Amino acid sequence: MPEPLFFPKAAPITLDEIAALAGVPLPEGADPQAAFDEAVPLERAGPRSVAYMDNPLYAEALAETAAGLVLVSKRFAERVPAQALTLVCAEPYRAFAAVLARLHPSAMRPGSCFESVGVSHGALVHPTARIEHGAVIDPGAVIGPHAEIGRGTTVCANAVVGPHCRIGRDCAISAGVTLANALVGNRVILHPGVRMGQDGFGFAMGPRGHAKVPQVGRVIVQDDVEIGANTTIDRGSGRDTVIGEGTKIDNLVQIAHNVVIGRHCVIVSQVGISGSATLEDFVVLGGQVGVVGHVTVGMGAQIAATSNVNSDVPAGARWGGTPAKPVREWFREITAVKALASRRVSAKDEKE
User: Fold this and answer.
1) Range 268-281 average pLDDT
2) Active site residue 294
3) Of 126, 133, 257, 294, which one is the catalytic site residue?
4) CATH code: domain of residue 48
5) What is the b/e burial string over 318-333, where b = at least 16 CB atoms within 10 angstroms of the residue's CB?
6) In this predicted structure, what is the pLDDT of residue 349?
7) 240 occurs within a structural domain
8) In the predicted model, what is the mean pLDDT of the chain?
9) Does 251 score more than 80 pLDDT?
10) Residue range(s) defining the domain that contains residue 92
11) Does the residue 24 lie in any domain?
12) Is residue 249 part of a domain?
């Protein structure tokens, strides 16, 4: 049985196309029409392959590669083997990504699970829903009353779009996604199992029991956001939960009610953000970071993985630890504790 081809290749890409994507001039004397069939890692590359290198950990793989073309940063350009063409780029990985996208366009966003065209006969679309021409609705998808879906958007199998939700154009709503009380912009990608717009965790707690507080806000997702599998985003309690333009969220992230996330943030897997926290633009949260409610993480701040943020973080800061603090202070504490432990072990050995 032949192996399935999940991401078919487009036509070969020429050297002048690659140079244009990378924004660099052609190598002197190179054939602009030289063609390449694939973009692969250094160790798998052959004469018609494009590879890249910008990390010293892969210096040995670079020296041994059989690639026909290497996208490389200036510091490693002299290490490219003689048989390979070299394109020196400021950002080799970004250039490599552009080549991959050109060769495998179907890998850029989830597509129809059923290769559907238009609204499938197996979809359940309420008569009052508005579906623009050019949208794709897979079998098993449910589109609720007064929902609106823009052209070029795909709603995959068994996804549910609740009443009055609006989804913009050229979005990908993957299999098993559920949307409620949400407004979604253009070119948004929601991976399988995303849950968006459900109740926030709101209760008036007391000795007589915990009274449910109605959650009457929305979720607003701006353009060009990508949200990973099985991430949950609660709707606001009174204010809206907002995900800013261009933000990228990994799998298994929990975002609570009233959270406001700015533009072009990066949030890695298993992060938990508590209610009413604010992340300003270009914030980065490493894996398993916890952010308590009602704090603000300033523009461009970076939080190290597994840290716990329980106070406001200044713009541009780099913090880590539990509780999170400036990285230098955190490192000093770790060094001091390590030194103290070492002294105690040495003292114990002397007594023995």
Assistant:
1) 98
2) no
3) 257
4) 3.40.1390.10
5) ebbbeebbebeebeee
6) 59
7) no
8) 96
9) yes
10) 13-108
11) yes
12) no
Amino acid sitting at position 182: A
pLDDT digits (tens, 9 = 90+) for 131-151: 999 999 999 999 999 999 999
Q: How far is it, in rounded angstroms, from Cα 133 to Cα 152? A: 8
The pLDDT tens digits of the residues spanning 287-343 come to: 999 999 999 999 999 999 999 999 999 999 999 999 999 999 999 999 998 888 887
Tell me the C-alpha distance between 11 and 96, whole Å: 16
Task: Assess if residue 294 is contained within a domain.
Answer: no
Q: How many domains does the chain have?
A: 1
User: Contact at 8 Å (CB) between 270 and 253?
Assistant: yes
Residue 345's pLDDT band (cuts 50, 70, 90): low
- Closest among 181, 133, 170, 173 to 157, alpha carbons compared: 173
